[in-house]
């Protein structure tokens, strides 16, 4: 019997914004901070003051939350820093997720070839702030 391998599944984001609303923290790196500050037309110091807080472990910065727990950059149904959003946001749910995430996340699970799967993962990892 020839060995068969599972078909890769790539989750296509439907921009439902559920992941921008659930409890958690969006960690940001120095480079991401600089890109988002430039995008907002702010100095890095102003950006830190207005939009960030210490991470729970005090090991760096995370984005602030709105009173209801949503990310500070969620505006209606869209992200105010979409072109430069943090890598943590870009990587969900294909590069990290949690058991049962499909119950809340509306990303469409599409079967793709291994080559296409790798191409899409590479885009998430490398395209960074060039992505829409
Ligand atoms: S930065 Fe944008 S994509 Fe990331 S959680 Fe906030 S609103 Fe959502
Ligand atoms: S990753 Fe999932 S939860 Fe987040 S916006 Fe896309 S479809 Fe919605």
Describe this structure in words.
The protein has 132 residues and is α+β, with helices and mostly antiparallel strands. Helices cover 28% and strands 15% of the residues. It has four helices and seven strands; from the N terminus they run ββααββββαβα. The strands form three sheets. It has a three-stranded antiparallel beta sheet. A two-stranded antiparallel ribbon has the order 1-7. A hairpin with a 6-residue loop joins strand 3 and strand 4. The longest helix is centred in the C-terminal third of the chain and has 13 residues, at 114-126. It is elongated and about 60 Å long. The protein starts with 8 loop residues before the first strand and ends in a 6-residue tail after the last helix. One iron/sulfur cluster (SF4) binds at residues 13-19, 92-93, 105-107. One iron/sulfur cluster is lined by residues 20, 26, 63, 71, 73-74, 79, 81, 85-86, 89.
Using the alpha-carbon principal axes, give the shape: elongated
Number of strands: 7
Q: What can be said about the biggest beta sheet? A: 3 strands, antiparallel
H/E element sequence: EEHHEEEEHEH
* Computed structural class: alpha+beta
Number of domains: 1
Looking across the biggest beta sheet, what order are the strands in? Answer: 2-4-3
What integer is the average pLDDT? 93
Regions with pLDDT < 50 over 5+ consecutive residues?
Answer: none
> Beta-strand level of the residues, as a percent range?
15-25%
Q: What are the bound molecules?
A: iron/sulfur cluster
Write the layout of secondary structure elements.
Blueprint (H helix, E strand, L loop, with lengths): L8 E4 L14 E2 L1 H11 L3 H8 E3 L6 E3 L10 E2 L2 E2 L7 H5 L16 E4 L2 H13 L6
Antiparallel strand pairs: 1-7, 2-4, 3-4, 5-6
Helix pairs in contact: 1-2
């Amino acid at each position: 019997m020839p060995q068969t391998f599972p078909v890769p599944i790539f989750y296509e984001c439907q921009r439902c914004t559920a992941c921008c609303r659930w409890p958690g923290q969006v960690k940001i790196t120095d480079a991401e901070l600089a890109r988002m500050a430039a995008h907002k037309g702010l100095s890095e110091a102003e950006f830190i003051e207005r939009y960030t807080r210490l991470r729970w472990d005090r090991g760096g910065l995370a984005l602030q939350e709105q009173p209801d727990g949503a990310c500070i950059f969620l505006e209606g149904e869209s992200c105010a820093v979409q072109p430069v959003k943090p890598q943590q946001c870009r990587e969900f749910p294909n590069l990290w997720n949690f058991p049962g995430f499909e119950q809340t996340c509306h990303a469409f699970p599409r079967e793709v070839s291994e080559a296409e799967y790798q191409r899409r993962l590479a885009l998430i990892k490398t395209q960074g702030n060039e992505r829409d």
